Amino acid sequence: MEARPKKLLDQVRDRLRVKHYAYKTEECYVNWIRRFILFHNKQHPNMMGPVEVEAFLTHLAVHDHVAASTQNQALSALLFLYRDVLHRDLGENINAIRAKRSQHLPTVLTPDEALAVIAQLSGVYRLVAQLLYGSGLRLKEALRLRVKDLDFSQNQISVREAKGSKSRFTMLPVCIADPLKEHLQGVKRLHQQDLEQGYGSVYLPYALERKYPDADRQWIWQYVFPSSQRSIDPRSQMTRRHHLNESSQQKAVKQAARKTGINKRISCHTFRHSFATHLLQNNYDIRTVQELLGHKDVKTTMIYTHVLNKGGKGVLSPLDACA
């Protein structure tokens, strides 16, 4: 008896895992592909092409009023479906009505404001925020840090498999080295308890679990900021301790920002924006800042040069000139 062919969405999941996409990306792509199929009355994507893709993307922009980044995310999911699963070429251009890309500058805190927000945090939330501001990490990068990624002797952090599957080095602030070491002592005790209870395994990327069968229980591979609770890995179905939840850190930062009374829209990513801007204010070379941030193109880093200018591009108001 021949095995039944896998359902399309299961094929998508398999292909995403072969290419080592993150679990959240997997869920996101599968959701967009499902929405695309439902939008076209459950037609199989093999029976559709560029025209149907354009119609779906146009609907997202015109009727659902999605942001440009959301529409691009949907397009990426559909391109992956056709290119990597169905092995079809949609052509160079998808002529859909595109959502307008917002042209806002990033919110940046002054050094005093950044420290004021951090001062309202405590425990692990404070340590994470200090790394976001002191090292320029994205939130996911900070939460995915492993013990082996911290080099206290060199005051350096290895950021592995960051955005765009790139790796880089950034600084480890000297002022938080001792608090981090103390924090790791508690994490190590927690890991030892997990091992004694028959757990202690952590997710490893790629095929490392097969190559090194015991690596997932080794101390150096454990998360620097582990979750307080063990949970079931949705892919392997193993009970493991994942890293701290993103939403927990985001909520903690928003609450801390409210307590300071600073009239700015502050999020975890605001610390990264502030890190870059303050380095440029301190006359560090923009290429150095680009490398520390992990930007592929220096044009992305250039946005922070616009934030540097104060009071309308640094021009003195005529009203002030008369004073």
Automatic annotation (TrEMBL):
GO BP annotation list: DNA integration; DNA recombination
InterPro entries cross-referenced by the UniProt entry: CB, DNA_brk_join_enz, Integrase-like_cat_sf, Integrase_catalytic, Integrase_integron-type, Integrase_recombinase_N, Integrase_SAM-like_N, Tyrosine_recombinase_XerCD
A Pfam family that the UniProt record links to this protein: Phage_integrase
PROSITE patterns recorded: CB, TYR_RECOMBINASE
Entry's Gene Ontology molecular function annotations: DNA binding
Keywords from the UniProt entry: DNA integration, DNA recombination, DNA-binding
Domain Tyr recombinase: 104-317
Family to which this protein belongs: Belongs to the 'phage' integrase family.
NCBIfam families in UniProt: integrase_gron
Protein name: Tyrosine recombinase XerD
Classification lineage: Bacteria, Bacillati, Cyanobacteriota, Cyanophyceae, Acaryochloridales
